[in-house]
Amino acid sequence: MSQPPYQPPGGQYMPNGRPRPGAPSSAPGSPSAQAPPRYIDYGNPRAYDTSVRPASGLTAARFAPAQIQRPDQAQPQSAWSTQTRRLQDVSQNATKLPTVSIVVWLALVVLGFFVLLVLGWFFLEFVLTASSSPIWWPVTAFLAGISLLVIAGIMFLADRWDPQPLPLLIIAVFWGAAIAAGLSYILNTLNSFLVYMVTGSEAAVAFAGPVISAPLVEETTKGVGLLLLMVLARRYFNGPLDGLIYGALIGGGFAFTENIIYYTRGLESFGAGQVLFLFILRGVMNIFGHAIYTSLTGIIVGFVARKWGTIMGFLVFLPALIPGMLIHAAWNLVAGLGGGLPVLLLMYGAKALLSLLWLIAIVVLIWDESRLTRVRLGDYANQGWLTHEEVDMLATWKGRREGKQWASQIGAKPVMKRFIRESADLASIRQRLLADGANPKVIEIERNLLSRLTSNRHELLSFAR
Length: 465
What we know:
It is built from 14 helices and no strands. It is mainly α. The two termini are 52 Å apart.
């Protein structure tokens, strides 16, 4: 069954405000007979639109494209529209995180238990095998935690445009620190044993373990957590920026556990000096290693899911693992070759360049997310749900700052923050409807968010009066 043709933003009306040829007429006095809202083309909406697709094949949605309906009654002009000229820039405040269901909190508790179980097992192994005092184990955990806090801080800044639920972010860290780290430790040990059984060579084990087994096993176990977040929490996994954030936190959690193991082994073998040396190499100069590997997978999965839908995001998972695996394998290969100071400088110079490119990519993806928000909210403005001044306020950093300052002057700052947060959520839901089609459950979410949008606008208007 073929899908209906794509309806550009603006619905039944052309950019000049006249009805499109063939558009159904409405009875006088009905809501749809009201003067059409002013149409504005926000950038290049087609860059994010996916409604024009084959009716069959992997890129076809399960549902027909979702069209935006005009409001049942004309929306009042916003209180914001009359304030734009007299506002000044103020500091940006963090947006309140949305509430999540008890199921997510239960998953968080279960994963937290596994974190304690895995770390406790590594601690017990260290206590039973180490000749030095186990009191130093918390010190190595503290050093590993510093690197994790840095990664989490960067992700917090990257997540400020459309914040993810806090429990999901913690689940990502816990998955990397417990599930991925524990499974990787077991599977890597098993693979090394099998290689030795087949070859009888310690050199083969020393090569196959870091260069073949570790990249394949570790990137897969970390990536499975990313894939589960995309499938089970699809509402909050809406694009490459979300994929990068979740992937980096999973990688950061994995590195946290792995660094504890390396630091404790270094302490047992060579003393405190070796721990400090390892902290500089792993916790400072290579701090973003695992975060970069897994976030590359997240970027690819997130981009495909946003552009072609959830099913394609799931199917692209295995190819999306390849970039992280290759970089991981290359790093371990060069590290295992030795070569002294020149090779060491080359390695960490290349990693510094890669880290810089990764940080630049975060900035670009934040810009892309804000641009998408403006395009999608523009769709609603073109149908009369918002004014175009509100789109500029809700979908730009400057507009958000000015909007919150103005709201604070009339005692409505919490309302404005909620308005901003829920509008960003609405833009993401609209993009999902374009990618996955008019899924009835997602349509209901959109309907609820539109109701919240109208309520927020009325509440701001009442404060302004």
